[in-house]
Amino acid sequence: MPRLKDVLFKKIEEQRPRVTRLLKEFGRVELDRVSIAQAIGGVRGVKCLVSDISYLDPEEGVRFRGKTIAETFAALPRVPGSEYPFVEGFWYFLLTGEVPTMDQTLQVVKDFQARRPVPGYVFEALRAMPRDLHPMAMLSAAVVVMQRESLFSRRYNEGMSKGDLWDPMYEDSCNLLARLPAIAAFIYRLKYKGDTPIPSDPELDLGGDFAHMMGIAPPYDDVARMYFILHSDHESGNVSTHTTRLVASALADAYYSFSAGVNGLSGPLHGLANQEVLRWIQGKMEKLDGRIPTEEELAAYLWETLNSGQVIPGYGHAVLRRTDPRFEAQMEFCEKYLPDDKLYRLVKMLYKVAPNVLREHGKARNPWPNVDAQSGVIQWHYGITQYEYYTVLFAVGRAIGVLANIIWDRALGYPLERPKSVTLDMMEDVAGIR
Ligand code: CMX
């Protein structure tokens, strides 16, 4: 049976001539034009990035390698006795675009198990950090400290051909991805469980081992698998993916690049929104001495937040114009496993009330919930009540997508990213007002 790396190389060889032809024969064909509003407005909607890993349709939501979330979950081999697929099989799928067989998946599981041991100095570095450091800062630092292990940097320094760069990028990415669950779980148990790390179980798959190292019983293993897959990729323009690819485009290795992506994910308008959602919801419950608010009280709280100039966390999106299918997938899980959970009931009520309030408010282009609107509720239900930790879970999932992207970036020889900037004077000249 060919290894994932061999299958990937075959795919790379198939794709390279497509890139060469597009560049050579059609390089001058216009994909898009850029307006002043787009240049000032965060490059919204400008088609200028390339990725085959996932695509985000504003009306439909994300497709991983052409498959919707439901199709992805249905197609991939599942962990025996579990309702969700192996993360390792999903990695195979994102990298190659092919749905792996159970045997191919188990081969990746075994490969990841062998890559899993985290160098001891990473844990020592984490232990030396102040315990009240935000866990995202800890994660980013741990990843960058592990840069010492980078094969990409070593082989680049030894001198290697551009066409081979994908190979050590693949090795670094697999090593990093295989080790991230242990690092994330270590941070959790260091910060919140009195420094009581649980060693990895070498027999378990990535999701199962993560639940084990967190010390949380099933079905949390399925929560981990679902959560990591859902958060993996959302095409390339979002801050964490774009940052990772941007840094990697300077031929920085996977450790530097992903650490930078983690820093981007830590912003409250991006991944940190999942901690903000629970902070916001619980703020309301505290005001009501733990009582679930009525719909009217919730609407009033939404207005209070909006009128004080703050955003409603977990709602709105830069690209999506409907309820995020990643929100719906988590809702499905909640309906099955925690339909009576108090926070979940509140999230459901918010889903009923918030879109109308946001529409009436009239600013947000998309009044519907995004992925962050209820992910914290599931984590809280299984005992992770430290909501500042939720974005770390997002980051472990996001690694799958961004690392797949940077392997392909090197495989297809994508160059250093270097968009052009203009001055306000220049824009006024173009607008004819100066
Ligand atoms: N609550 C209040 N106002 C909102 C809003 C929300 N949830 N979503 C958008 N708006 C406002 C924007 O702040 C903007 O206001 P200004 O014109 O005063 O600047 C206006 O509506 C238009 O924004 P938009 O075009 O609809 O959305 P953007 O592309 O600018 O921003 C996002 C997208 C996600 C940053 C924004 O919807 C937001 O801040 N949401 C809340 C935070 C959040 O949930 N982030 C997580 C997103 C998913 C993820 O990456 O994890």
UniProtKB/TrEMBL annotation:
InterPro entries: Citrate_synth-like_lrg_a-sub, Citrate_synth-like_sm_a-sub, Citrate_synthase, Citrate_synthase_AS, Citrate_synthase_sf. The keyword Transferase applies. Pfam families: Citrate_synt. Pathway: Carbohydrate metabolism; tricarboxylic acid cycle; isocitrate from oxaloacetate: step 1/2. One of its GO terms (biological process) is tricarboxylic acid cycle. It comes from the Bacteria. GO terms for molecular function: citrate synthase activity. Its EC number is 2.3.3.16. The keyword Transferase applies. Keywords: Transferase. PANTHER family: CITRATE SYNTHASE, CITRATE SYNTHASE, PEROXISOMAL. NCBIfam families: PRK09569.1 (NF007128). Belongs to the citrate synthase family. This is citrate synthase (unknown stereospecificity). It comes from Syntrophotalea acetylenica.
